[in-house]
Fold:
Amino acid sequence: MVGVGFSEMLIALALIFGSGIGLPMGMPPGPEDPLMFRVAPENCIFYATWTGVGEIDGAANPTEAWMSQPEIQKMVLKLRTAYRGAILNQAKQNDDPVAVSLAAVFLEVTELAGANPVAFYVSDYRLDNDRPDFKGGAIVGMGNAADRIETAFAKFAAEVDRIGLDETGIEKIEIDGQPAYSFRLPQSELEIQIGLRDNYFVVGFGAESLTQLAAKSKTDPPKWLSKIRTELSVQRFSSLCFIDSKRALESFTDEKFGDAAPFGGLINEIIADDVKSVSWVSGLDDQGFIGRCSIATTPKLTGILSAIDREPIPQSDLRFIPADSAICLATRLSTQEILRVVTECMQRIGQESALEESFSEFQKISGMSLKDEFITALGDYMFAYYQLDRNDPLTGWMASIRIEDDMSFQGIFERINRGIEIAIKEQGAPFELTKQKIDQQDFYSIGDNSWTKVTWGLVDDQWYFGHSLKEISRLLTGHAETNQLANHETIKGFYDFGDREGLKGPVAVVGLNLKPILTAVWPFLDLVKDQPGPINSDFDFSFSDIPPLETLVKNLQPNFSAIYRTESGFQILQRQTYPGASPGVTIVAASALSLPFILSEYENPQSSTNQNNLKQIGLAFHIFQDSRSKFPAAYTTDDNGQPLLSWRVHLLPHLDQQELYEQFHLDEAWDSAHNISLLEKMPDVFRHPTVHSPVGMTSYLAVTGDDAVFTAPKDTGGDRPEGKISFVNVVDGTSKTVMLVEVNSENAVPWTKPSDLTNDPKLVLEKTKGLRTDGRFLIVLTDGSIQTVGKITETDLQAILKINDGKWVEIPRGPRP
Structure:
């Protein structure tokens, strides 16, 4: 059976729903809630809001007409069910009652956020090598589903109260007289606060976050937000996003971010200090979906955006592009600026020599300087398009770049062709350079099949590239006037919009015609649609849930975007039939798909302490091996071979317990008059937080035996704690061999006593019984990693208890305890 990955589904959805993953759950917009705007901070890095979903009017515009089709509505319902299932499946795998009740709250909230108003913001964001941290908040309108949320929240509160705040590690707080709760994700130390406020569910990230959100909800929206709403107005508002680019990129250049700092520096090199902020607004009007974006920049551009800091494209120049292209692009673009930015980026990452080598190779082939002759001869207008032919999909592409001075470029053009011809001969390529004519103009081709063939030629001030003379000839003949991009209603609307807004024409136009693309790829998708089963166990949505092709392409218009140069930066206008990307829907999807991770990260303090204890012991075990070339023995002996002290005692120096170690009489037994007095001084690292045993008792036992990691000592003597095994002896693999096991309270032992577990699978299963309701237990593998063992057979358990039986088994993992 062919398996389908979730990433493949995302690709399909991206194709189906246009620019970005515009899930049809996000339209049409519902009524605006002013509170969503008031909670936005004066200074923030990121802010997003959306109105939720309203009633569909199939006659209002093409987008709602498309959405009103029964097959589309059926898919929307299935998507919402899949999101719910993703969270439910995670909840079922967790036996922590607090985590289960918390999952139930988020289940209701994420489902609610798919239809109701949402706002989310990040006011501060810091990255370092160990723990990323941010501050922010989110608010979700509960609407007529308030009873469901309140019931789920009450059950969560009851579980916390029943178990106890200390036991759960959850703190009860109060915001304006209303109860809320706070807990931390131990892997990041991020504090999360949740609560109900009037008819809203609120989430805070960071200390005092809900207090700040409550205070902000009583003020007016910040000026920057009101400005965006005015400048990027849409007829029926749906969603808004804002990002402070400068503050967002600062994290990538922070020295604390370690290895990612060069990457951040490269981003800054590309963007430079040009971009100050990016704002995005989407909605509907009588033409369908509309998206508007504003990129605020500095007056003088020095990064990659300087390449399109050009004069607008005359509308007449778009007549060379067919309106029915599957993909098209036309732009005013400075190749000199692109080369400058690329050069600076290569210098930053230390690849100047590779770039210079490319320049030298170009000069060797063409006999001219790439920087000083070739690039300077190119103009600043270029276009490209692709007309998809289902029978021959590798053909149908065309590209053209304008020449600065076609008379002087003629010599450059001839030198390039001669250089290519010589290079082909010198390298012994299986094809040659051929020359043909169209209307007395010379055109050149290389390649002998559809995969490699390229044809090019110079006509007046345009340098054309295509798959073959057929495509170029069709362009030069001229497209039908009704099929010229310049005459498409959306494109004419772009120029009308520019005139109204004082923006003139666009500096770039991008088109994506999904109808021919979907028609071409649908037979391949059909092969996958017939496969049974879900994409994965957590997200029950497959290709078979996507409507038929005729439904998806019904009355479908191409997606077009136009980029305008403004006094303050750039503006982008996007139009399409499919509902476009919406931050609200993205939040819903991200919540559903990332909540399993959040829940797996949530641990009560006991669980976190338990794993930290085992990690410290595993690390000390490795330090011992590094210093003595052998793993510790299960115990030390006197000169007659009688056991004295456990391996736990001899691990003390590597657990920052040297002072305690020096108090032991190493030549005496664990229960000698002196050593027995040290039993009560057991370090916390050996104390299991949830197994209640008398003082001095531990539930962390080693796996012992002749074919186990822990063996009898190599030599007798109380100061000889080395065993017989080292890493090289673990032939089954350190990641597949057990070193330590946690056991139940009945089988805890005095921590200094040389008493552990033999590598008998029946014995191990018996002594771990009852640790958790579903039989799971923790092990420490010889590589130092901690793993939860789910249901396992005695045969498989025996294989991982031994170091050299030659059996390699996959350890059945359970969810984190």
The longest strand covers residues 275-285. The chain is about 35% helix and 20% strand. Confidence is low (pLDDT under 50) at residues 1-24, 254-263, 532-536, 592-597.
